[in-house]
Write a structure and sequence with these properties.
With about 220 residues, the chain is mainly α. It has 9 helices and 2 strands; from the N terminus they run αββαααααααα. The radius of gyration is 17 Å and the shape is globular.
């Protein structure tokens, strides 16, 4: 374990308090962050309580031996944190280990990636979250509840998905409806609508609509 010159302690705020012991075990094996504070953090509600998640993580990955020493739950928390890494390849590796989990503290890390720009990560999430379309499944309940509890965060996510498609992916996906991010928004809105028992606002463009004012 490296002796950190810059503390990772603020990262503990990314998870509910009942996970504090597991979080400390994870932070103990993580190399020091290259930033003295959370970078571009965002605050969301998980299980009725606020958590503050880093926009980006600036530290190396721990050694394989250090990861093996962690429990399954602790490895899950580590994957959550490294899904916020500044390197997109690192984010993808770690979200691949998260996307089938319905644990509520995992959900905001996955949804945040839906609103980002790496197409390969969107495909991973789309393929991993297909079961949330089925009412009563753990994923449907977890993701629907999260969106319903965080309407402003999800509204911003919807706008970001449209913006990144408009800026970077129109060549490959001439219609927004064919874009993996669009599929994910449909799944998340459907789950939230079931939880809230009302239609969830759709901020995405309809088929054939002009999309101006992005980027």
């Amino acid at each position: 374990m490296q002796s950190p010159s810059v503390s990772n302690a603020p990262l503990a705020a990314a998870f509910p308090a009942e996970l504090a012991g597991d979080v400390q075990a994870v932070l103990a094996v993580m190399p020091a962050s290259r930033s003295e504070s959370l970078v571009d953090p965002f605050t969301v509600v998980v299980g009725g309580r606020q958590v503050t998640i880093p926009g980006r993580l600036y530290c190396d990955e721990p050694s394989a031996d250090a990861v093996v020493s962690l429990s399954a739950r602790q490895r899950q928390l580590l994957h959550c944190l490294y899904s916020r890494h500044c390197d997109g390849r690192v984010r993808q590796r770690h979200v691949e280990q998260l996307v089938t989990s319905a644990d509520p503290w995992v959900v905001p890390f996955v949804v945040q990636l839906v609103g980002e720009y790496v197409l390969e990560i969107l495909v991973v999430i789309r393929d991993g979250l297909r079961d949330i379309a089925t009412p009563g499944t753990p994923g449907h309940l977890a993701y629907g509840t999260f969106v319903a509890d965080n309407p402003a965060f999800f509204a911003r996510t919807q706008r970001r998905v449209v913006s990144y498609w408009s800026c970077y992916c129109r060549g490959a996906y001439t219609s927004f409806q064919g874009y993996p991010g669009s599929t994910l928004l449909d799944l998340l809105r459907s789950a939230a609508s079931d939880i809230a028992e009302r239609p969830w606002p759709n901020l995405a463009p309809s088929a054939g609509a002009r999309v101006d004012g992005y980027c």
